[in-house]
Write a structure and sequence with these properties.
This protein is an alpha/beta fold. The protein is 30% helix and 28% strand. The strands form 3 sheets. Strands 8-11-12-7-13-14-15-16 form an 8-stranded mixed beta sheet. It has a 6-stranded parallel beta sheet with strand order 3-2-1-4-5-6, with helices on both faces. A two-stranded antiparallel ribbon has the order 9-10. Helix 1 (15-24) crosses helix 9. The structure holds nicotinamide-adenine-dinucleotide.
């Protein structure tokens, strides 16, 4: 079967640009996917950052200006992974170029920027844009979604979603753009990690009605090239929110931290209902726990969190054996499989990437969190 070839251009040859280029190299792992994807171009303002892409044999073009990549007629889809203050300009350029766009979170440095990006999408006929958020593609996260959708959890009363890092624990770690408000955004860790924690809740329609937030700027300055400089973003954020829909009313706790002891990209989601519960964390990436009541030998009826291994099967089938383990690079490949399947009109009922509207909703929660923290009260996200 000859499949449509999709040529991908990557803008931003840093941490995530390389991660995505590496994951796409494993495209042949996908079974019966409607497109054949390859990375053919890369753009970065630093010529030295482009050199790494010499190892990706399909890359034919290297640019130091993203506009040159966007003008390349060979490229069908673009992935952009740059600093948050650059999102609005580069994303709107990409949207107006007519190419499909998978763009990194948080989708603009703040709510106003995110709104303008969404306006650009809505005013560009045929635009196809999604927001990068790969961790819900872990098989365990998909099991959590299936458990929720089954209705078997009964009336939900508590949801906890977290995304935790220990990456800024060391106060001697040199400053990066991620710890500077003018590049990352004043919400700091919420811009970094908020979309990760919010993707599945928002997909379920659980946009909080009110937000109470505690934000912490724990390390106030860090070494720069010429001495200490302000590290003026929040590293940690804890949000207690209330979700109220037509038939649901429960607490949704969102935790995003850059300083969480021992955590190296720990994404977790736990849902508790009156009839059952389910929880998954990437800390134990193939283990999913389900709550039940079980007749324990010699004990009798008890409350039990039981464990099952989720294996390797995510949203799109692969040649990987179902009993193998799944990892970060697999989640990136699965996200791209969904993105390009949807682009080709062949996603069907499968789980799709975060939408621009979901990215905008995440920004509304972040905006409410900033107001809540500043004013010490619960705040309704702006509509
Ligand atoms: N999905 C995830 O798991 C995940 C993880 C980390 C970061 N991110 C997101 O990815 C984005 C980038 O983060 P990163 O960690 O890869 O950053 P990074 O600093 O490692 O890389 C950014 C790259 O962009 C380049 N750049 C700067 N200006 C540019 C321009 N005008 N045109 C082209 N390239 C330009 C820089 O030279 C650098 O190489 C951010 O939005 C971040 O929030 C997502």
């Amino acid at each position: 079967m000859s499949r449509r070839v999709v040529n991908i251009g990557i803008v931003g040859a840093g941490l995530m640009g390389r991660e995505v280029a590496g994951a796409i190299q494993r495209w042949p792992m996908l079974v019966d996917h409607p497109v054949d994807a390859r990375v053919t171009a890369v753009a970065d303002i630093q010529p030295r950052a482009l050199e790494w892409f010499d190892a990706i044999g399909t890359v034919r073009s290297r640019y130091t200006d993203h506009r040159a990549l966007l003008a390349d007629p060979e490229i069908d889809a673009v992935y952009i992974a740059v600093r948050h203050d650059l999102h609005e300009r580069l994303y709107t350029d990409a949207i107006r170029s007519g190419k499909a766009l998978l763009a990194e979170k948080p989708f603009g440095i703040d709510l106003a920027a995110a709104s303008r990006i969404v306006d650009a999408i809505e005013s560009t006929p045929g635009a196809f844009v999604r927001c990068s958020s790969e961790l819900p593609f872990y098989p365990g996260a998909q099991w959590v979604l299936s458990a929720i959708a089954s209705g078997a959890l009964g009336r939900i009363f508590s949801v906890r979603a977290a995304m935790l890092h220990a990456s800024d624990l060391d106060p001697a770690k040199p400053i990066t753009w991620k710890r500077q408000a003018r590049f990352n955004g004043v919400s700091g860790v919420l811009n970094d990690l908020g979309m990760h924690a919010l993707h599945i809740p928002l997909r379920r329609g659980w946009e909080p009605a009110s937000v109470y937030a505690l934000l912490q700027d724990i390390v106030a300055e860090r070494p720069g090239p010429d001495g200490m400089v302000p590290a003026d973003t929040f590293e940690n954020a804890e949000l207690l929110t209330r979700v109220r829909t037509a038939d649901e009313d429960f607490s949704l706790r969102i935790e995003t931290k850059r300083i969480s002891l021992g955590d190296k990209n720990t994404w977790s989601l736990e849902v508790q209902g009156l009839d059952g519960g389910v929880r998954f964390s990437t800390k134990n990436p193939k283990s999913v726990e389900f709550f039940t009541r079980a007749d324990l030998p010699g004990v009798g009826l008890e409350q039990v969190w039981q464990q099952a291994d989720s294996g390797s099967v995510s949203v799109w089938p692969t040649v990987t054996g179902p009993n193998f383990e799944f990892g970060f690079a697999d989640s990136i490949l699965q996200m791209w499989a969904s993105f390009l399947a949807e682009y080709a009109g062949a996603l069907g009922e499968r789980f799709g990437c975060a939408t621009p509207q979901e990215a905008l909703a995440a920004h509304r929660v972040i905006d409410a969190a900033l107001t809540s923290h500043a004013e010490g009260r619960a705040v309704a996200p702006p509509r």
